[in-house]
């Protein structure tokens, strides 16, 4: 899975460095951070709605859209994919944090 994410992120970075006419990714970079963030928000809402509607294929598609737009945002902000994957790996190593997670849920 990480290979797929890394390949996609490399394409996003390539479009950022070498714009290609007609590319949606380049369009987002050209419009700037506000447009990118708007799309992240829209895709997040669409993912929630798809999950609530309980249509797995729609939910998968919306999650993919959200991940893509998050990657565009990451590239725009200069956040390496490896940093995010490393943080996920770090979190996956934690065991027994249910009490802490419940506290976080109460606070959010």
What is the tally of beta strands?
A: 0
CATH architectural type: Orthogonal Bundle
Report the helical percentage: over 70%
Question: How many domains is the backbone divided into?
Answer: 1
- Overall morphology: globular
pLDDT < 50 runs, ≥5 residues: none
Strand content: under 5%
Instruction: Give the overall pLDDT as a whole number.
Output: 91
CATH class: Mainly Alpha
Q: Between the first and last Cα atoms, what is the distance in angstroms?
A: 30 Å
- Count the DSSP helices: 6
Q: CATH superfamily name?
A: MazG-like
Q: What Rg is obtained from the alpha carbons, in whole angstroms?
A: 16 Å
Query: Helix- and strand-based class?
Result: mainly alpha
SSE sequence, one letter per element: HHHHHH
According to CATH, the fold-level topology is: Helix Hairpins
Q: What summary fits the major beta sheet? A: none
Please provide a brief summary of the model.
This protein is an all-alpha fold. The protein has six helices and no strands.
Structural notes for this entry:
The protein has six helices and no strands. It is an all-alpha fold and 108 residues long. It has a single domain (2-80), classed as MazG-like (Helix Hairpins). Helix 1 (2-17) crosses helix 4 (56-77) and helix 3 runs antiparallel to helix 4. The radius of gyration is 16 Å and the shape is globular. The two termini are 30 Å apart.
């Amino acid at each position: 899975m990480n290979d797929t994410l890394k390949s996609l992120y490399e394409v996003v970075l390539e479009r950022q460095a070498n714009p290609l006419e007609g590319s949606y990714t380049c369009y987002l970079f050209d419009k700037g951070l506000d447009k990118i963030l708007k799309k992240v928000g829209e895709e997040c809402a669409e993912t929630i709605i798809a999950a609530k509607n309980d249509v797995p294929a729609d939910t998968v598609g919306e999650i993919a859209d959200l991940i893509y737009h998050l990657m565009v945002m990451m590239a725009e902000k200069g956040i390496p994919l490896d940093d995010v994957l490393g943080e996920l790996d770090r979190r996956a190593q934690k065991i027994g944090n249910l009490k802490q997670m419940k506290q976080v849920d109460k606070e959010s």
